[in-house]
C-alpha cells in the first residue's frame, strides 16, 4: 500500500511535467513539496537510539520517531569533514569537483567564485521555491544571500574566524546579508526558534513551497550541552573500543601512530584527567537539545498543516570517533566510527514508514533526490544518484557503490596533482579514496601505504584488514577497479596520478 501511495505521488509529478521542466513550472504550488533538511555537526549515527550501533542507554525519542515515520538508511557517508561535506551539499559534487573552493587566511577562512562554483539553491529560487538557510555556514565568506537564498540567518564561520569555536554561545549572527549581532542564547535552541518562525510563514512568501537547510552547530567540540541536560546519562558505562591503544595488526603505518588517549591508573583511557566514559557522556548530552528541537519542528509542521507535504531529511556532515582506532573526537578517517552519519528520510503518505534501507548511500545522492521531489530539472551533471527508487522500495536493486574521496583542505582542480609526503595528510590521516558496496569497504590511501578492505557484515568494527590476505585478493581487485571507475565517471583529475600502493599481502591464516 505504501509503495502504491508513493508511486501515485510521483505519477502525479510526471503527469504534471514537473520532472522534466526547467525554469518554468506549471503545477499549482500546493502540489510541490516543502523540504526541511536538518543537518547536524560531527554527529555520529551511534548517538541515535534508532540505530543498533547506539549504546543501550542512548535516548533520542523524536529522531527515532522520524525513523518510524520514514526510511532509515543503515549506512550513509555524507562527507569526511565539515567544509567539503557542506560544499558537496551545495553543488552535488565530490570535493574534487567543487571548483574554485579554497581555504585562505586564518582558519577556517575560505572563498570561492560563485560563477565557477554555483550553488544549486539558486536554481530552486528560479523555479518558484523560497530558499532558506539557518545556522552554521562553512563554505566561503560569501554566504550567497540574495543569489542563492531568499532567507538567511547564519553564523558565518569563515568570515568571523576569531569566533570559530563559539559553537554554542556568543556567535556573530548575520541576518539576511545585513546586520550582525552576537547570539547569547544556546545556539541549538535559537536555531530551532528561527526555523519555527520560518515554517510558520515569517519572512517568506507563503504562496510558494520552501526549502530550508537548518544547520545545527551541535554536537561539534567543545561538546557543550544545554544547562538542562548536564545531569543526563549519569553513571553510563560501555566497553572500551578494542583498538583504542596500539598496536593495530594489519592496519597501515599511519594508523599505528594514532595515540590520542593515555592509560589511567587501571589502564583505562583518559584525556585531560577525564575518562573516556565522561567525554562520551558529555558528547551525548549535546544531542538531547537536537532531539528536542526536532520535536518542536515536527509539532510546528503538524499544527500548520504542512507535515504531509514536507519532505524531512535528517543527517549530519559526518560522524566522530571516540576511542575507536585510537581517535579522540576526530572525523576524516574512512572508518565508520569517524565518518558514518545518521540518515533518515520522512514524508508520511508519500514514502514507506518504519523501514530500514541497508543500501549504503552518499551525500552526493541527496541533491538529485531533492531535485526529483521538487520536480526541477538538474541544472548540471551531478555526481550522485537520485535516491527515490530506494525510497519507493528500500530493498530495490542498487548498482551504485558509494564513493568518498578525502583530499584534505583542497578542492576542485587543486587536487589534480596529489602532494607528496606530509602534504597529503590532514589531521594525521592521509588523503584517500573510499568505495563501499553492500558488504565491503575499500580504502586506497593517496600516500605510499597499504590499502584497507573490510567485510562490513562480519567485521563492522573494521579490525580485520582483508587487503593483506591472499584469499581476498579477488575482492580487493574488484573494489580497486570500482574505485577507478567511479573516479573516472565523476571526472576526478587525479585518477591517473595516484601514488602506487604499498603491497602487504601476508600468509593465509
Give a verbal description of the structure.
It is a single chain. The chain has 509 residues and is α/β, with parallel strands linked by helices. It has a domain at 2-227 and 280-395: Alkaline Phosphatase, subunit A (3-Layer(aba) Sandwich). It is built from eleven helices and 25 strands. It has helices at residues 2-15, 61-68, 82-91, 121-126, 187-199, 253-256, 276-303, 336-339, 366-374, 388-392, 473-489, and strands spanning 34-40, 70-73, 76-77, 102-103, 110-111, 130-137, 151-156, 171-175, 180-183, 210-215, 262-263, 269-271, 274-275, 310-316, 321-322, 328-330, 343-346, 355-357, 361-362, 402-406, 425-426, 429-430, 432-436, 440-445, 452-455. The strands form seven sheets. The protein has a ten-stranded mixed β-sheet with strand order 9-8-7-6-10-1-14-17-2-18, sandwiched between helices. A four-stranded antiparallel β-sheet has the order 20-23-24-25, covered by helices on one side. A three-stranded antiparallel β-sheet has the order 11-12-13. Helix 5 (187-199) runs parallel beside helix 7 (276-303). The longest helix is centred in the middle third of the chain and has 28 residues, at 276-303. It is globular, with a radius of gyration of 22 Å. The termini are far apart.
Outline the secondary-structure elements:
Elements: H1 2-15, E1 34-40, H2 61-68, E2 70-73, E3 76-77, H3 82-91, E4 102-103, E5 110-111, H4 121-126, E6 130-137, E7 151-156, E8 171-175, E9 180-183, H5 187-199, E10 210-215, H6 253-256, E11 262-263, E12 269-271, E13 274-275, H7 276-303, E14 310-316, E15 321-322, E16 328-330, H8 336-339, E17 343-346, E18 355-357, E19 361-362, H9 366-374, H10 388-392, E20 402-406, E21 425-426, E22 429-430, E23 432-436, E24 440-445, E25 452-455, H11 473-489
Parallel strand pairs: 1-10, 1-14, 2-18, 3-19, 6-7, 6-10
Antiparallel strand pairs: 2-17, 4-5, 7-8, 8-9, 11-12, 12-13, 14-17, 15-16, 20-23, 21-22, 23-24, 24-25
